[in-house]
């Protein structure tokens, strides 16, 4: 193995609002196939998979199952891991977003971004699909989600935002100087259009089911409600 030839690949970090299904299996097998090929070619591989254990739909699924969110995600995350082990998926690491090591990493990154002025507190409102965790470009309450067709909910809340506009020039230069950085071209064009739009990215800093802030410095952040820069 050539340690200078590194290759990193990750599956989606799967939501644990329900048991694993064929879609999870498909993406995991695809990643496993790529990882095995790269190992055979002599690359130093880092293959990650895991579970994303936050969000309203997970909280609601736990309530419907009659258990706490923690007990619910523990059960479902274990099912994912058992399935990948049974299928001999060659992952190097399985990360759960509720693990202390992940929380520490989030705290460290959040603090660094806050110190550099890249995170600010703001508010937003709109029609939101709980199932797809997607804001919908609609104004009428209950408008259907364009992805799943279910009725959306009207949401208004405060949250923390990453100031993507501060990175716009550097990111666009990277994408233009290295066209192969994002592939395929259709996705590259989508990313470029998004960055040029001067958007901000919503950054959840709270565990919905526990109310515990992930970042101890959050209370010191100043509030600036309104439009996003």
Jot down its keywords:
229 residues, alpha/beta, Rossmann fold, Methionyl-trna Synthetase, domain 2, four-stranded parallel beta sheet, four-stranded antiparallel beta sheet, 6 helices, 37% helix, globular, disordered C terminus
Summarize the structure.
With 229 residues, the protein is α/β, with parallel strands linked by helices.
Overall description:
Helix 2 crosses helix 3 (69-86). The strands form two sheets. Strands 1, 2, 3 and 4 form a four-stranded parallel beta sheet that branches. Strands 6-5-7-8 form a four-stranded antiparallel beta sheet. The protein has helices at 22-40, 56-65, 69-86, 100-115, 168-177, 185-196, and strands at residues 2-10, 14-15, 43-52, 93-96, 119-129, 134-136, 153-162, 201-203. The protein is globular, with a radius of gyration of 20 Å. It is α/β, with parallel strands linked by helices and 229 residues long. The chain has two domains: 2-98, Rossmann fold, CATH 3.40.50; 105-220, Methionyl-trna Synthetase, domain 2. 37% of the residues lie in helices and 23% in strands. The protein starts with a strand and ends in a 26-residue tail after the last strand. Residues 205-213 and 220-229 have low confidence and may be disordered.
Radius of gyration: 20 Å
Q: SSE string, helix = H, strand = E?
A: EEHEHHEHEEEHHE
Subunit arrangement of the protein? single chain
CATH class of the largest domain: Mainly Beta
The CATH topology of the largest domain comes to Methionyl-trna Synthetase, domain 2
Strand content: 15-25%
Low-confidence runs (pLDDT<50, min 5 residues)? 205-213, 220-229
Helix content: 25-40%
Q: How far from one another are the termini?
A: 46 Å
Number of domains: 2
Helix- and strand-based class? alpha/beta
Write down the overall geometry.
globular
- What does the largest sheet look like? 4 strands, parallel
CATH architecture of the largest domain, please?
Answer: Beta Complex
């Amino acid at each position: 193995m050539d340690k200078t030839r590194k290759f990193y690949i990750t599956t989606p970090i799967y939501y644990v609002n329900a048991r694993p299904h064929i879609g999870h299996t498909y993406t995991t097998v695809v990643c496993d196939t790529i990882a095995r090929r790269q190992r055979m070619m002599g690359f130093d591989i880092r293959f990650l998979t895991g579970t994303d254990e936050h969000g309203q739909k997970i909280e609601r699924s736990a309530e419907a199952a009659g258990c706490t969110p923690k007990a619910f995600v523990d059960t479902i995350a274990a099912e994912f891991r058992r399935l990948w082990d049974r299928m001999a998926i060659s992952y190097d690491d399985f990360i759960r977003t509720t693990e202390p090591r992940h929380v520490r990493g989030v705290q460290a990154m959040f603090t660094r971004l806050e110190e550099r002025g890249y995170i600010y507190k703001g508010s937003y409102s709109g029609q939101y699909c709980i199932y797809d965790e997607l804001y919908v470009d609609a104004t009428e309450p209950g408008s259907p989600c364009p992805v799943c067709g279910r009725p959306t909910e009207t949401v208004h809340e405060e949250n923390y935002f990453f100031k993507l506009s501060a990175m716009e020039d550097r990111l666009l230069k990277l994408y233009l100087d290295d066209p192969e950085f994002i592939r395929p071209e259709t996705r590259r064009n989508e990313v470029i259009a998004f960055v040029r739009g001067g958007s901000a990215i919503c950054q959840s800093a709270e565990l919905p089911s526990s109310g515990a802030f992930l970042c101890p410095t959050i209370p010191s952040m100043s509030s600036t409600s309104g439009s996003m820069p």
